[in-house]
Amino acid sequence: MTSKRRAPVGAGIGLRLPHIAEIVATLPPAPWLEIHPENFLANPHATELLLEARRHYPISVHTVGVSIGSAGGIDRAHLRRVRALIDSVDPCLVSGHLAWSTHAGEYLNDLLPLPYDEDTLRLLAMHIDEVQDGLGRPFLVENPSSYLGFRSSTMSEVEFLGELVGRTGCRLLCDVSNVYLSAHNMGYDAHRYIDGLPVEAIGELHLGGFTPEADEAQPGAELLVDTHATVVAEPVWELYAYAVRRFGRKPTLVEWDNDLPPLATLLAQAARADEIAVATLAPSFGRAVAG
Ligand SMILES: [Fe+2]
What we know:
The protein is built from ten helices and twelve strands. A hairpin with a 7-residue loop joins strand 10 and strand 11 (222-225). The longest helix has 19 residues, at 263-281. The strands form three sheets. An eight-stranded parallel β-barrel has the order 1-2-3-4-7-8-9-12. The protein is of the alpha/beta class. It binds fe (ii) ion (FE2). Fe (ii) ion binds at residues 142, 175, 206, 208, 255.
């Protein structure tokens, strides 16, 4: 029997509650599924279905509630709840965001930005150590979708992530869509961002849809908002091929959280990710590029 702990290299899909019964009933051909543990902690029926799905698919756990960037520290009660779910699911990957989302016991429904400086590095390194110890698993840190930066930052996001990897042994989840939209919003080069990430630390890739909105701060300008409510944009597929060339074929997740489409749409997006990864790494592609 294949170990559920081994992360498959193919493209999986996010397992969202409206699809879970259909997935368990029809067992569509997905190499793995990713969940937000917070969707299951107070939902025993969904957890039952999750454990049924887990008999057929490796599961990745992507927490949105473990706030590694909170100055007030990690919510240990929440960490224990996530650990209990992890122990029953035995996931192939465990990840979360380079962000903060809690303050003084309040949970904010957002992933908020951090200044990239030495103080933040020390805080996050301490928190990642605590999370990895508390969950008993390596933790993958995901690059955020960015809309603003801090003047007080003393290093780039890529430098910050590289330092975190060196200090904690954590790995990285490169959300290719986040790289694309943050590069657009913040005015940097998406390809150079990919070039700067430590290849050996990349354990997973994400792809999701974004929505262009008018930028109220700059009339006439457009902000790309990480809505996870639509298909992956064409330029993101191109950046994905670039990321696959640099990182190799990695477990890739198509994530969709709002205006959820039929399951078939998600599976088609995942199939496209697989096609692009295979074509990108095919020997003929290398020859075509070299030629
Ligand atoms: Fe993501």
